[in-house]
Amino acid sequence: MARPPRASLEAQAREARYAALRELAREHGAHAVALAHHQDDQAETLLLQLGRGAGPAGLAAMAASSTDAAGLAWYRPLLGLPRAAIDAYARDARLQWVEDPSNADPRLRRNAVRQRVAPAFASTLPGYPGTLARAAAHQAEAASLLDALAEIDARDAHYDAAGGAIDAAALAGLPPARARNLLRWFLHARGLPPPTSARLEAMLRQLAGARADARVALMHAGTVVGRHRGRVFVHAASPRGYLLPWHGETSVALPHGVLAFEAAEGDGIDAERSVAGLAIRPRRGGERLRLGPDRARRELKSLLCESGLPAWEREALPLVMAGDALVAVPGIGVDVAWRAPPGRPGLRPVWHRGTAAPTNQAAARGPSRTRGSR
What we know:
The protein is an alpha+beta fold. It folds into 3 domains: about 10-140, Rossmann fold, CATH 3.40.50.620; about 155-235, Uridine Diphospho-n-acetylenolpyruvylglucosamine Reductase, domain 3, CATH 3.30.465; about 245-305 and about 315-355, no CATH class. The chain is about 40% helix and about 20% strand. It has 13 helices and 18 strands. The chain has helices at about 10-30, 40-50, 55-60, 85-90, 110-125, 130-155, 170-175, 175-190, 195-210, 270-275, 300-305, 310-315, 355-360; strands at about 30-35, 65, 75, 165, 215-220, 225-230, 230-235, 245, 250-255, 255-265, 270, 280, 290, 300, 320, 325-330, 335, 345-355. The protein has a 5-stranded antiparallel β-sheet, with no helix packed on it. The longest helix is centred in the middle third of the chain and has 27 residues, at about 130-155.
């Protein structure tokens, strides 16, 4: 299996393990999975997160329990026990186990920490690994308090959980540390991984400090973080380059949603002409539309600007075309040359944009939000 860009072998193996466990749970109708992580694993995770410069959420390491986006519960009942206690029990009970040979490979970062760093801590600091596990618990508490503060600030910023937006002005009015905390929380609430500190600072500067009429669109984790009419949104990037035929079907699946066609007498696209073979594609620029016999043909760009739709929604709208001629735009109208006459059946285009990628992918990730989870 090809490794995604910048993805470590350890991260890829972890995702594969969780995917296999999730599939087994589905096959057996299980609602919970118990994992065998122990106290040494927790201490190693904390050390790895320290090496990455993580904040409280990362330094909290692995949670004792969590539920993923699919509703599957994950538990780590051995997290309070050191490896030595588990090994001693296994020996006393004469249990048989299989050692993963990859655990001895020092090229893998966790193995290097286990073989070189952890022994130095254990020989120098009494109570290892329990002391580091306790530090992770303190960080988990701090992260929880930061989330609680972000929820308070989100209410003041008129956070819309359904639409996924916050006020840019309220974000700009917070002290810098609280503004960063709110933006980090907001991105996590939309199913996105945390950006680096430098990236977060740049995003905050552009989202909160832009002019009221400025267009802001920042790519992050395959989505776009944008600003429209003083509100900060997260939305999927619009695909480009698709071209699909349409012969009167009631719906057409597109890469980013579904274009449906509702029956409408004397309105919409003339149903008799739809069988001529039209096509659906994104905007390319220069398209023009005439919405009435007594109205001039106008540029689609102008019509869309007047619609009040955010820029990313305008870019996402699919167009119904007859060659180079624009036939219809959902939510805007049908060209007078293609509109169904009174009393004749028509097909009104209705656009249903799909769910953004981060929401769909949330269930595919592991049960913990920290990067160091095993």
